[in-house]
């Protein structure tokens, strides 16, 4: 996997994907209280990536993020994902993909 940020702060990622069944991902959102070294978990999702990649109508947060990622990369829209090279170019979280209760921070 290779990743880097552009001067504008956009994320670029490239990786070779070799699936290991079952295909799943764990997404954890954490926050850091000011002047603290510790991060606290706000929520954690265990996601069936095949189902999330195929889903265009589900309104869950992981599905929304997958749709956002697909705009900037070549992530498969069908599951299971095949072995291959997948990348993101100039990715950034769009305003509608960040819940209003998440404030800016670390």
TrEMBL record:
Superkingdom classification of source: Eukaryota
Pfam families: DUF1091 (PF06477)
InterPro entries, sorted: DUF1091 (IPR010512)
Protein name as it appears in the record: Uncharacterized protein
Organism, scientific name: Drosophila navojoa
UniProt lineage: Eukaryota, Metazoa, Ecdysozoa, Arthropoda, Hexapoda
């Amino acid at each position: 996997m290779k990743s880097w940020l552009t001067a504008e702060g956009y994320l670029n990622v490239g990786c070779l994907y070799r699936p290991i069944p079952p295909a799943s991902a764990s997404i954890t959102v954490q926050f850091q209280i000011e002047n603290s070294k510790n991060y606290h978990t706000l929520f954690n999702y265990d996601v069936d990536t095949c189902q999330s990649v195929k889903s265009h109508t589900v309104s869950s947060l992981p599905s929304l993020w997958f749709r956002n990622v697909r705009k900037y990369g070549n992530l498969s829209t069908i599951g299971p994902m095949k072995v291959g090279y997948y990348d993101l170019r100039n990715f950034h979280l769009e305003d509608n993909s960040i819940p209003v209760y998440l404030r800016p921070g670390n």
